[in-house]
Each structure stands twice: as C-alpha cells, then as structure tokens.
C-alpha cells in the first residue's frame, strides 16, 4: 500500500506524441494527477477519460499536470485517445504490470471480448487515481478492484482548491501501532 507523504514508486512510460513521461522530472508546480485505466476494452474507462479531458485545463490552472495510462500497447492507447477525442490529456502506454503492482493496482485476467466487442488483454491493471506532489510523495490515492464507481474529477478539482487555500496536508500518513 502506498502511504501519503511518502515517496511513490518511480513511473516512466512512453506517451503518445509527448516523449517519455518520467514522474521524477515532471516538474509541475503543485503535482500530477495520474489516472490508471483498464484499457481500450473498457467502455466505462472511455467515459471516465472524457471527463478527465474536460478537466485538464482546470488542473493546469492550479499548477497540476495530468496523465492517463494503462498497460495497453501504443496502438490500443492511440485508439482510446482517438475514441475520446483527446486534445489536452496526455496518454502513456506499455505500463509494465510489475509497476502497476508497485502502485497497488489490482490485476485482472481476461474474460474475452467485452460488451463493446473488444478483446481484453490476457492481464491488465484495474483503475487507480493518484495525485502526486512535486516531491513525488503521495497526496491522494484511490484504487479499485473493478471499473465502477470512480472518484469525480470535478470533486478532485474542488478538493484541490480547498487544499491550496488551507495548506491542507495529505492524510492517512500514520503507520504506527493501532
């Protein structure tokens, strides 16, 4: 499990048209929103990423960069970016499953074709949403076992406004005896 206020695992992936994403050199003023999604086969992911695409500018106004990434290949990732008509959202691809596990993501096995007729990969990561501070420490994290009921980006933007205005620290940092 990742712990708030502690360093996250490193994260380096190729992106569509933006070179290599490397969390250690990201350099955003207030951090990075990292949205791990299941892949092209997931219709719920497409709708979720459309919502993130609408909010990229809101995050940027607050000094936060965004990236969506999955274990999908470049070809499948490009198809997802095209599907959601991405203009601002960066997409990373070829996320190693071992790195997905380092981030605490759940791994699923294929069940064949999905409801939209696209084959699931043999293994793929389930969703996770993280906000990582500029020093690469975890500020916010949400990990899921399936694609349903995800955090809303509008709420995350609102929470970010509150955190900035009140210098609100990352919570959930206690690791001692209970």
UniProtKB/TrEMBL annotation:
Name of this chain's protein: Redoxin domain-containing protein
Q: Which GO terms describe its molecular function?
A: antioxidant activity; oxidoreductase activity
Note the superkingdom of the native organism. Bacteria
Cite the source lineage. Answer: Bacteria, Pseudomonadati, Pseudomonadota, Alphaproteobacteria, Rhodobacterales
The record's listing under InterPro entries reads: AhpC/TSA, Thioredoxin-like_sf, Thioredoxin_domain
Task: Give the matching SUPFAM superfamilies.
Answer: Thioredoxin-like
| Short name of one Pfam family | AhpC-TSA
Q: Which residues form the Thioredoxin domain?
A: 2-165
